[in-house]
Amino acid sequence: MRTWRNEQITSYLIIMNTDSTSTDAHPISVKDAANRLQRAVASLSASLTPISKRLEQLEAGAAGQTRLEEDRQKLSAELDTALAETKAAKQAQSEAETHAAELKSREAEFTELAEETMKEMDMVISQVKTALNKT
Question: What is the pLDDT of residue 100?
Answer without folding.
Answer: 96
